[in-house]
Amino acid sequence: MHMNRANLVAFTVVLTLAAGMGLWASPNVELRNQQLAVTERARDGSYEILSRELRHLVLVSRVGAEVNHHWLFSSNYPRHTVASAPFDDTLGRGQAITITFSGMRGRPDLVCHLRLYEDEPYGVVSVSVRNETGKTISVQSIRVVEAAGHPLVNLGASNRHDRVLAESASEDPTIHIGGLAQAPPGGYFGVRNLLIYNLASKQSLLLSAITSKRFLTIDRVEAQRDAQGIFHLASLTVDSTGTTQAILDRDPIPPDQQVQLSLPVANGGSLSSEQVMFAAGPDYLTELENYGKAVRRLHHLHFTRRMAPMGWWSWTAFYAGINEGEVLTNARWLAEHLKSLGYNYFHIDEGYDYAR
What does each C-alpha distance from 324 to 64, 277, 329, 345 come to in angstroms? Predict the structure, then answer.
């Protein structure tokens, strides 16, 4: 077999990744467990996620933030520094990478935090905005994932075979499960959870928020048709942002009624995104189950059959059209007829407020 110098270099890189531990061994791979490897890309600070089964990059991502209504991305910064250290938290032990992006005058630093667990088949990513500009700034959104590879997501087969599961914040008519060709106008939109599954390779990628302390986590997947009429993945993002943005994606609001998120960060302060779990592999159901277990452990949730909540929920009957009389009537009836049977919850949902 004849190989020129370029092919030989490429072949050597492939062998290096495939060697060691039966999978890969590369000085660029900073974190490993039995299922995943996470790399900080030296040339631009992007992070890369590799899957054990696929033995190649599943996702390459940069991070960013919307500050003072202007987007800043990690690739815009002239400097990035990397630190690695062990950690031990509620979900387990592992190794962490911290990538700090700095050097833009008058702009805050971005700090990307990556954690990979020793005994769990997943990792966690979050991003902080660190303000050392000398003045207070406002943050509208923090981008934890923005796919930047080619292809954007590589699950081992053409992404024409990809199917998307994007969980919605509430009931609405938008399609949230389907192939790229079935994507609704504007693409798939989800809150908290995003799963991409390839029908041909049987491999999947999960990106799911495990916290919701301050932000809403919004996932977006957009598709694009090529000259042959085949749909391909055009963009993938995961943002920590506000509820107005979620509503705008589904039901546009007149500008004079919009309230955009704008969180102040004083000089010397910082603001962190929500934590987003990432997992990749051949068993999407196990990935979803592991996500549920992680949320339960992280938030110390304990449920039994005896404790299952039962009661009345305004949204399922009246949606946003509730009033005081309807609420009191149902509360009294519930107390009189069903409380003794265990129906002891009374949930007033949206509709009690004057407006969104």
Answer: 45, 41, 9, 17
**Tens of pLDDT, residues 65-118:** 999 999 999 999 999 999 999 999 999 999 999 999 999 999 999 999 999 999
Single out the residue of 115, 280, 296, 294 nearest to residue 195, CA to CA. Answer: 280
Q: Which DSSP state fits 153?
A: B
Q: Which residue has the higher pLDDT, 170 or 48?
A: 48
Backbone angles phi, psi at 285, to 5 degrees: -65, -40
The string of DSSP codes covering 39-91 is: EE-TTT--EEEEETTT-SEEEEEEEEEEETTEEEEGGG-SEEEEEEEEEEETT
Q: How far is Cα 103 from Cα 82, in angstroms, rounded to an integer?
A: 14
Measured between alpha carbons, how far is residue 29 from residues 37, 50, 180, 278 in Å?
Answer: 7, 10, 31, 17
Q: Which residues contact 2 (CB under 8 A, 6 or more apart)?
A: none
Helices (H) and strands (E) in the chain, counts: 5, 22
Are residues 305 and 225 in contact, defined by beta-carbon separation less than 8 angstroms? no
**What's the pTM value of the predicted model, to 2 decimals?**
0.80
**Which of the four pLDDT bands, split at 50, 70 and 90, describes residue 186?**
confident
